[in-house]
């Protein structure tokens, strides 16, 4: 319809409820406006009042579907619909109307003589959807998938692990190759008719049964400071969920006879009359089968907890408390890294800080000092006139940026002491190191130094 809501004229008593305040004063709508919470319900009741009682007609807001068992009945229905619309003063938008078609798209479905089918573009959207990265994206994907629940009756059971991730108490951690990928594989098979979809559903169940669905697990990996700097492989004992060895993953004792649930006819779902939502069947809990025999080992879940050891690749530069999802077989496990503190280094993001003690001579004259870096001994340039607590930046000598080839920086904090006879490195104008444990007297030591090093001793 053309400007559907605005074709409905409001009665005088109702207009006061849609008054708006503008910079030019108060204005009142004379026709039903868009954006009002009650507008859809008002318009739906209006259309049902106009076209109610006509057989083979479906109405959803401004979309009207007319069908018929044959051409004669269809034309009769179409004529009745057009007459009532004309009598009510409602106009159609010709460019959006389709007449006498063999098939039609209506509310996300394709309808033809053989029945109801999912739209090809919707199926492609499901099959090609990117992996959800957070709860919001997962909700959007599940909404699209559940819209076609009638074509996969046991969908609620298969997607139960994903729905679990939506609970508030569940930590978000996406497990690769879970039911998300199973759904993509099956919907990407080109299913169209109900029979083809039923065949896919059976394959879908077999595929999902082998995945051993389980929520992500939390594990802690203890690291030394050096291991966090350079990266390492660590063995980790983890609890995984595997198929129950007693029932083979079915959740029921071997030999159990499965009957179709009479409440949901094996679909595993039921429609709430109040909210028009699709919920798991209350009788069979979404399984679609009626049986009271549950496996005693797994309590009907089809899964048992099993202990195993995996090798975890710890990336260089990992931080204390940082978490990552590590693939383990067909699952993802959540790993939290705990890094011990270093007595030498202090971490700030991907930068590192340490202290360097130098003599007054080094501070005044400058030179090069050797110190400890993250990856070995490093040369630290000491500029002449260095002050106490001055920071010297060594670019690219910090922690590795994860998922990048760049590095943070190393900041050396200068500390000055009174005298140092046991120095390593070089100092400007000093030609030879002087050992503090020498048996020479001070006057003898001076003979082995340049006049400039005498100046250093004079200052001290």
TrEMBL record:
Per the UniProt record, the lineage of the source organism begins with:
Eukaryota, Metazoa, Chordata, Craniata, Vertebrata
Tell me which PROSITE patterns the record gives: RT_POL, ZF_CR
GO molecular function, one example? Answer: unfolded protein binding
Q: Name one GO biological process term.
A: protein folding
Q: Which UniProt keywords apply?
A: Metal-binding, Repeat, Zinc, Zinc-finger
SUPFAM superfamilies named among the record's database cross-references:
DNA/RNA polymerases, DnaJ/Hsp40 cysteine-rich domain, HSP40/DnaJ peptide-binding domain
- One Pfam family cited in the UniProt record for this chain: DnaJ_C
User: Which organism is this entry from?
Assistant: Astyanax mexicanus
Q: Where are the zinc fingers (CR-type)?
A: 231-307
Coiled-coil parts of chain? none
Q: What is its EC number?
A: 3.1.26.4
Similarity field: Belongs to the beta type-B retroviral polymerase family. HERV class-II K(HML-2) pol subfamily.
Domain named Reverse transcriptase is located at 1-111
Which ranges carry the CR-type domain? 231-307
Any keyword Zinc? yes
CDD domains given in the database record: DnaJ_C, DnaJ_zf, RT_LTR
Q: Please report the name of this protein according to its UniProt entry.
A: ribonuclease H
């Amino acid at each position: 319809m053309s400007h559907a809501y605005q074709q409905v004229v409001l009665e005088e008593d109702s207009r006061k409820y849609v008054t708006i305040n503008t910079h030019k004063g108060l204005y009142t709508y004379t026709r039903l406006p868009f954006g009002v919470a009650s507008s859809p319900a008002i318009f739906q009741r209006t259309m049902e009042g106009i076209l109610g009682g006509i057989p083979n007609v479906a109405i959803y807001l401004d979309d009207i579907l007319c069908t018929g068992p044959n051409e004669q009945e269809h034309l009769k229905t179409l004529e009745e619909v057009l007459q009532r619309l004309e009598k009510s003063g409602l106009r159609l938008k010709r460019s959006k109307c389709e007449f006498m078609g063999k098939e039609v798209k209506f509310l996300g479905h394709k309808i033809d003589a053989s029945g109801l089918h999912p739209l090809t573009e919707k199926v492609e959207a499901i099959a090609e959807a990117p992996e959800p990265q957070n709860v919001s994206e997962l909700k959007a994907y599940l909404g699209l998938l559940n819209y076609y629940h009638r074509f996969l009756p046991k969908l609620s059971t298969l997607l139960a692990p994903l729905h679990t991730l939506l609970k508030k108490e569940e930590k978000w951690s996406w497990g690769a190759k879970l039911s998300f990928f199973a759904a993509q594989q099956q919907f990407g098979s080109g299913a169209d008719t109900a029979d083809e979809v039923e065949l896919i559903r059976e394959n879908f169940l077999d595929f999902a049964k082998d995945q051993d669905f389980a929520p992500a697990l939390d594990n802690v990996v203890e690291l030394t400071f050096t291991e966090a700097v350079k990266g390492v492989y660590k063995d980790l004992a983890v609890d995984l969920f595997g198929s129950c060895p007693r029932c083979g993953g079915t959740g029921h004792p071997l030999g159990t006879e499965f009957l179709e649930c009479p409440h949901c006819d094996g679909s595993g779902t039921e429609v709430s009359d109040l909210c028009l939502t699709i919920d798991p069947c209350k009788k069979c809990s979404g399984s679609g089968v009626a049986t009271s025999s549950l496996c005693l080992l797994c309590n009907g879940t089809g899964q048992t907890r099993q202990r195993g050891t995996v090798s975890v690749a710890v990336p260089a530069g990992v931080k204390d408390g940082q978490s990552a999802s590590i693939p383990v077989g067909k699952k993802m496990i959540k790993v939290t890294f705990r890094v011990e503190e270093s007595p030498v280094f202090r971490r700030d993001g991907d930068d590192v800080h340490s202290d360097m003690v130098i003599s007054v001579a080094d501070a005044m004259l400058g030179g090069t000092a050797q110190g400890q870096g993250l990856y070995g001994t490093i040369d630290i340039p000491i500029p002449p006139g260095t002050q106490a607590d001055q920071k010297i930046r060594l670019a690219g000598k910090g922690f590795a940026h994860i998922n990048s080839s760049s590095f943070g920086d190393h900041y050396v904090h200068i500390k000055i002491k009174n005298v140092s006879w046991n120095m390593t490195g070089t100092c400007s104008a000093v030609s030879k190191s002087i050992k503090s444990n020498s048996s020479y007297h001070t006057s003898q030591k001076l003979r082995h130094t340049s006049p400039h090093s005498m100046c250093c001793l004079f200052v001290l």
